[in-house]
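Milestone 3.1: sequence recovery, worked example.
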């Protein structure tokens, strides 16, 4: 009776697990403890269903009550450990590993082990649990997914930009860094291809190995070639490193300087990257000069003949038109921002001469000058004025320049200065009211709470903005100048022939 199945292949235990009835689950297993309760028509066993749904109590009951080893199979060849990892249940992962650590090396229909899943999702703590238990199953570290260019767990973590998991894998098994996928890419190639900010990772010992830094894939491209190809301006330390071969040639006999010189300046970073490469003596390759001469000859041909080079001429015109449109759009944004920052500067300037509480008639000093709240008001108001005036200067000089790189940087600097001037102005307003309000506790709390809501909204909207556009913030010199690298994430879905990893 207990082993009967419905049309979907579910037993009574399947149903009890699905609707989370612990007492029923325990009773059913005790009545028939030797039955393994295999998968239903979907391929899901009761243990897998409990793990997938995060039912810790049911997993405990099934593992502790069953006399024989319960079936752990699940959807698409996964195991209960796969489910616990994918749905991020660290405690359940620990329980399943204590029960059967051999599941670490089990792979699903796509060839993914639980460690591959943790690397893909960036679950560092779960990856550490798996590595701690993989002492006698170390081959899983070097196992590649055949349907996904034979990528190992380290390759997957790198392609997804999960620095924590990558560093963890490299610290446990340093030699796994030497592996490459079917395209010849090592972990650094894959970090570059995802346009990730890897500055902190650069200081890891395994990351600085010459073989990795200058390794070539099947197209002969080193990580520096990819940095130039993707125009990643935040790789300054990588470019400046003496371990990086600046004159390495790819299969087309081009250096990184050749690639960035011939690339379209779509992000406004071309000049900046070229300057950095030239500062470390990076030069054009043997075919770089030929490319320049060829480009000059093509331009001469366009000027000499009206019948030839029509396609090139229209292409050049299209690029010029696109460049003018970009410049116009950036300046239009600067003008709009200038209106906002000018308003902030006007308000904070006026507030500086109309202090809360007024002035004394005899000496003209502020009446409430000894109150701490007024001192905070003065500091915040001054900060807002200085930041807003700095933004005005940025937008003013922005109108005098037409270079993409300069316009992009100026707009980013002005945006950050304006945002923080706005926050400082709000602090000044809150402290100004606090200074002159009567000694009424509820009124002071109300004002501070309402003003505090602005900062909650301010932080949420900034976080949403940076997350949506994947803006990378890199602190620089005076005044903690911020540089925004707006890079739309180009994800590499782990799929082949329509089969996704998840």
């Amino acid at each position: 009776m207990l082993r009967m199945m419905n049309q979907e292949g579910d037993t009574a235990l399947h149903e009890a697990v699905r609707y989370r009835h612990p007492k029923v689950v325990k009773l059913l297993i005790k009545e028939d403890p030797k039955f393994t309760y295999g998968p239903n028509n979907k391929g899901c066993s009761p243990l897998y269903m409990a793990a997938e749904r995060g039912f810790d109590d049911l997993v405990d009951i099934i593992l502790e009550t069953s006399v024989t080893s319960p079936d752990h199979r699940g959807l698409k060849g996964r195991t209960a450990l796969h489910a616990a990892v994918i749905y991020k249940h660290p405690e359940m992962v620990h329980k399943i590993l204590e029960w059967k650590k051999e599941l670490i090396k089990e792979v699903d229909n796509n060839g993914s082990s639980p460690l591959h899943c943790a690397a893909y999702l960036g679950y560092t703590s779960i990856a550490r649990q798996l590595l701690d238990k993989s002492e006698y199953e170390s081959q899983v570290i070097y196992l590649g997914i055949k349907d996904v260019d034979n990528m190992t767990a380290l390759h997957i973590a790198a392609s997804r930009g999960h620095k924590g998991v990558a560093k963890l894998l490299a610290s446990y098994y340093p030699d796994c860094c030497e592996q490459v996928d079917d395209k010849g890419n090592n972990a650094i190639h894959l970090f570059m291809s995802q346009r990730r900010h890897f500055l902190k990772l650069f200081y890891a010992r395994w990351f600085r190995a010459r073989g990795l830094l200058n390794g070539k894939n099947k197209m002969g491209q080193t990580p520096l070639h990819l940095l130039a190809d993707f125009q990643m301006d935040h790789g300054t330390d990588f470019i400046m490193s003496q371990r990086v071969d600046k004159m390495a040639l790819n299969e087309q006999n081009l250096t990184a300087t050749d690639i960035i010189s011939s690339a379209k300046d779509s992000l406004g970073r071309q000049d900046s990257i070229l300057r950095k490469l030239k500062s470390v003596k990076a030069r054009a390759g043997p075919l770089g000069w030929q490319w320049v001469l060829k480009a000059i000859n093509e331009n001469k041909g366009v000027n000499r003949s009206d019948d030839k080079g029509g396609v090139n001429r229209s292409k050049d015109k299209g690029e010029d038109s696109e460049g003018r449109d970009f410049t116009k759009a950036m300046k239009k944004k600067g003008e709009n921002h200038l209106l906002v920052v000018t308003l902030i500067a006007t308000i904070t300037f006026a507030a500086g001469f109309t202090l809360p509480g007024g002035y004394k008639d005899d000496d003209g000093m502020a009446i409430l000058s000894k109150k701490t709240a007024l001192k905070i008001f003065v500091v915040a108001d001054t900060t807002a004025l200085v930041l807003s005036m700095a933004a005005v200067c940025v937008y003013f000089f922005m109108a005098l320049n037409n270079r993409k790189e300069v316009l992009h940087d100026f707009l980013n600097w002005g945006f950050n200065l304006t945002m923080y001037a706005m926050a400082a102005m709000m602090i000044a307003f809150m402290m100004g009211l606090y200074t002159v309000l009567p000694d009424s506790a509820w009124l002071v709390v109300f004002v501070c709470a309402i003003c505090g809501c602005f900062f909650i909204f301010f932080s949420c909207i900034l976080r949403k903005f940076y997350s949506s556009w994947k803006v990378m913030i890199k602190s620089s010199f005076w005044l903690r100048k911020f540089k925004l690298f707006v890079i739309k994430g180009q994800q590499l879905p782990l799929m082949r022939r329509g089969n996704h990893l998840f």
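The two ends are 36 Å apart (CA to CA). The beta strands are 471-475, 482-486, 495-496, 499-500.
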